[in-house]
Design goal:
The complex is a heterodimer. Helix content of chain A is 38%, strand content 19%. Chain A is elongated. Chain B has 2 domains: 118 residues, D-Maltodextrin-Binding Protein, domain 2 (3-Layer(aba) Sandwich), CATH 3.40.190; 88 residues, D-Maltodextrin-Binding Protein, domain 2. In chain B, strands 2-3-1-4-11-5 form a 6-stranded mixed β-sheet. Chain B has a 5-stranded mixed β-sheet with strand order 8-7-9-6-10. The mean pLDDT of chain B is 91. Classes of the chains: A alpha/beta, B alpha/beta. The interface between A and B is medium-sized, with 24 and 24 residues. Chain A: Required for the first step of histidine biosynthesis. May allow the feedback regulation of ATP phosphoribosyltransferase activity by histidine.
Chain lengths: 387, 217
């Protein structure tokens, strides 16, 4: 077999890329740990029925599916949150809540591959389980902001929304499920042309129409919430607006408000979100960097009702933005010589001092090694030691 | 590449002139733009605006990837490519419609009898989706031009194509059999630019909306 093909949307990672990746992971893990989050791991694949508890049935064409020997249908995990919800509902029933968990994992989706979108992708994320309310939302969003900052990114925005505003408006509209789904996807994809056409054709309150039509373009500071005419009439939507205001105020306390914008068009694709939701963007990349929010009903689907919130950061996308991260590497030496025992002793001595040491295992002469070193000054920063 | 310029991808060809008229009304710069010139990028430093001149079919790719923040392109191209972009304004001009057209000789054929027939088209995605939505299996033959020739030469039983006046169909003895959808020119927007350059983009969108619904900007 001389085939060098790999499946579409996958890739090899070489040392320079992995250095950046590990740097990011270390930063993320240290930050999460400093907020008392602890790492977990779930299986790479799960039963389809488990995966669909979280994602709903609407992303099946994005799943990598296969069968086990007993005939069960399995899916490579398309995201981490559902697996962690299952894990918590299984193993953490007797734990003291809130529980704070984090992960550094790969997930898989059958998407159209392009720059910044791969079929195997890596995420760093957190889940805050067992805590309701604004403070929990604010903690998670604060960590998202700090994670990007820790990795060296300054120019980014987190778009914030409360999904219950949109959902309550739609619930009370008297529209059927199909119409609701249609409007939802039009708002989410900001297809304003089709949205206005569909709204025109519907027999619902004019003020409600106006409000739904304006949602996708409401974007800015907290004052945009004053531009929702119909909301006063809907108690649940009003409560959600109030909650969004409180999250915003709490984020001011957390010192991250400079990065926050309110964006009523952020609905998140997955079925499980229930409250505050957010997405992170950098002007230097045409795709989102992170996403998350509150999902209070997901654990209940696994028989363990428990409020929860969290986010996941796309490491592959972020890596594209971190061209020259502040990597800290120990100086590297090349040690060679005729007397191999002396070479080993010298190398061990340097390693003890914290340096990285490459031993010449080919028994080359000093001249040969010097020639070999030419052009590798950036790599062998310590230089050659010939004993 | 990030800068504070607003980059707009323009479709070369027939859409360019009406687009520039709209831009003029919106007080956007437009001096010296010409799709026959060799330059493909037009920069206006004072207004912080850049235009790039693209083939219409390339506009969604520039916008999706963020090489342009906004794009002006026909709905036909947007639907065919199914790119991940925001569709913000219907600019109304550049009207045409997607139709299935059949040779005059079989103009009374029933829709169901198109099952397992062959359709020639430049738009395989739109054609495929339409026939599927009708529960039909139709073999799609992708061609790059002169679609009307295919039924004449026996390459296909029908065509799926864009029609504005219908003259070309008539000249080739084809008749419009069923309309799939209407298409007009749209303003599309990159998902991230919409958020990161919102202060530049939102007023522009609002003015375009006003203009296209008959008001003045």
């Amino acid at each position: 077999m001389k085939s060098r093909k790999i499946s579409r949307g996958l890739r090899d990672l070489l040392p320079p890329e992995l250095k950046v990746r590990r740097f990011m992971e270390e930063k993320a893990a240290a930050l999460f740990a400093s907020y008392a989050y602890e790492e977990v791991m779930t299986p790479t694949f799960e039963y389809l029925e488990v995966v669909e508890m979280g994602t709903g049935g609407n992303i099946r064409e994005e799943l990598f599916l296969f069968m086990d020997r007993e005939g069960g249908i399995l899916s490579l995990r398309p995201e981490m949150t559902t697996g962690i919800a299952r894990l918590a509902a299984t193993h953490l029933r007797d734990a003291v809540f809130p529980q704070r968990l984090y992960y550094l994992s790969n997930s898989f989706r059958y998407v159209q591959p392009h720059l910044a979108q791969y079929r195997e992708f890596w995420q760093a994320g957190i889940e805050l389980l067992g805590a309701e309310g604004v403070r929990a939302d604010a903690e998670v969003i604060t960590i998202a902001v700090k994670a990007l900052q820790e990795m060296g990114l300054d120019n980014f925005k987190i778009s914030l929304n409360q999904i219950a505003i949109f959902n309550s408006l739609l619930d009370d509209s008297g529209l059927n499920r199909e119409e609701k789904d249609c409007i939802r996807s039009l708002v989410e994809n900001k297809d304003l042309v089709e949205l206005s056409r569909v709204l025109e054709s519907l027999d619902i309150d004019d003020e409600l129409k106006e409000t739904i039509a304006i949602l996708p373009v409401l974007h800015g500071g907290i004052e945009v919430l004053d531009r929702l005419p119909y909301v006063e009439k809907n108690r649940r939507a009003l409560a959600a607006v109030q909650e969004l205001r409180e999250v915003y105020e709490t984020l001011q306390l957390c010192g991250v408000i400079d990065h926050i914008v309110v964006d009523m068009g952020v609905l998140r694709g997955l079925d499980y979100y229930t409250g505050t939701v957010f997405e992170g963007y950098s002007p230097e990349l045409g795709y989102g960097l992170l996403g998350g929010g509150r999902y209070d009903h997901l654990l209940g689907k696994f028989g363990f009702p428990c409020p929860a919130t969290g986010f996941a950061l796309g490491m592959d996308r972020l890596a594209l933005l971190l061209k020259h991260p502040a990597l800290q590497e120990a100086p590297r030496y090349l040690v060679g010589g005729k007397d191999f025992a002396a070479v080993i002793a010298q190398a061990e001595e340097l390693r003890k001092q914290g340096f990285a040491v490459e031993i010449d295992v080919e028994g080359k002469s000093r001249q040969e090694l010097e020639r070999k070193l030419e052009g590798r000054e950036n790599c062998i920063t310590g230089g050659l030691i010939y004993v | 590449m990030y800068d504070d310029y607003l980059t707009i991808a323009l479709s070369k060809g027939t859409l360019l002139e009406p687009t520039l008229e709209v831009f003029k009304k919106l007080k956007l710069p437009g001096e010296g733009i010409d799709d026959k010139s060799r330059s493909m990028v037009f920069t206006y430093d004072k207004e912080r605006v850049k235009y790039i001149m693209c083939r219409p079919t390339d506009v969604p790719a520039y916008v999706e990837q963020g090489a342009a923040d906004l794009g002006i392109v026909g709905k036909d191209v947007i639907v065919e490519q199914a790119r991940d972009v925001f569709e913000m304004v219907d600019l109304q001009y550049g009207y045409c419609r997607f139709v299935v057209a059949v040779p005059e000789a079989i103009k009374n054929i029933a829709l169901k009898d198109l099952n397992y027939k062959r359709a020639a088209t430049k738009f395989p995605v739109i054609a495929e989706n339409f026939f599927r939505s009708q529960g039909l299996q139709v073999e799609i033959i992708k061609l790059h031009g002169n679609i009307e020739l295919a039924p004449l030469m026996g390459l296909a039983d029908m065509i799926v194509d864009l029609v504005s006046t219908g003259r070309t169909l008539k000249e080739n003895r084809l008749v419009e059999f069923i309309k799939i959808m209407d298409s007009t020119t749209r303003l599309i927007c990159n998902r991230v630019s919409y958020r990161t350059k919102h202060q530049q983009i939102q007023p522009l969108i609002e003015n375009m909306q006003k203009l296209s619904t008959g008001g003045s900007a």
